[in-house]
């Protein structure tokens, strides 16, 4: 049973418009004990875009926090790489369509 003194009020605010926000944490119950890490990715509408969690074995809370930050950094860089490639592909496709429109190729094929 949760005691009244164990409860805490926690506030969370979504990021500014068109910004993504990662919330990450790592913890253990005791030093050293079983530990875990996790994180959640939100957009400015508080929509969950992704999340992760994983056990990390027997660690103290400081090690769990460090592992969480390390994994988060790796995932974030992977996410940026994928996002950049998607934007690049979209830009190339739009540019190709505009070039075809300017050259009047699109209308000649219709």
TrEMBL record:
This is RNase H type-1 domain-containing protein. It comes from the Eukaryota.
